[in-house]
Amino acid sequence: GVLFEKVIIAPYSEMDRKIALVAWNYLDKFDVFEEARILKFLQEHVNSSNAPEPRGM
After folding, report:
1. Most Cβ neighbours (<10 Å): which of 16, 21, 44, 57?
2. Phi, psi of 38 (to 5 degrees)
3. What is the DSSP string of 1-57?
4. What sign has the CA pseudo-torsion 55, 50, 1, 4?
5. Regarding predicted confidence, which is higher, 6 or 56?
6. How far apart are CA 15 and CA 11, in angstroms?
7. Number of other residues whose CB lies within 10 A of the CB of residue 54
8. Which residue has the higher pLDDT, 9 or 5?
9. Would you list the domain boundaries of the chain?
10. Phi, psi of 32 (to 5 degrees)
11. What are the Cα distances from residue 39, in Å, to 13, 33, 34, 35, 46?
């Protein structure tokens, strides 16, 4: 759906945690997959007014 159009998933073995969610000025790192936490982060940050081009393509 639209919520996932701007999401990139990539492995990176050098991280200190297993999962990292990154948005402009935000970083959330954790080791255990938590679907609700990830969805909340996406809902708060995808197309955020904090992005350099809010609602941009």
Report:
1. 21
2. -65, -45
3. -GGGTT------TT-SSSEEEEETTEEEEESS--HHHHHHHHHHHTT-TTSSSTT--
4. positive
5. 6
6. 9
7. 10
8. 9
9. 1-6+16-56
10. -110, 130
11. 23, 11, 9, 6, 10
CA distance 32 to 35: 10
Amino acid at residue number 57: M
Q: What is the pLDDT of residues 21-44, one digit of tens each?
A: 999 889 999 999 999 999 999 989
What is the C-alpha separation between 52 and 34, in angstroms, rounded? 28
Confidence of residue 8 (pLDDT cuts 50, 70, 90): confident
Residue 20 pairs in a beta bridge with 29
N residues, the chain: 57
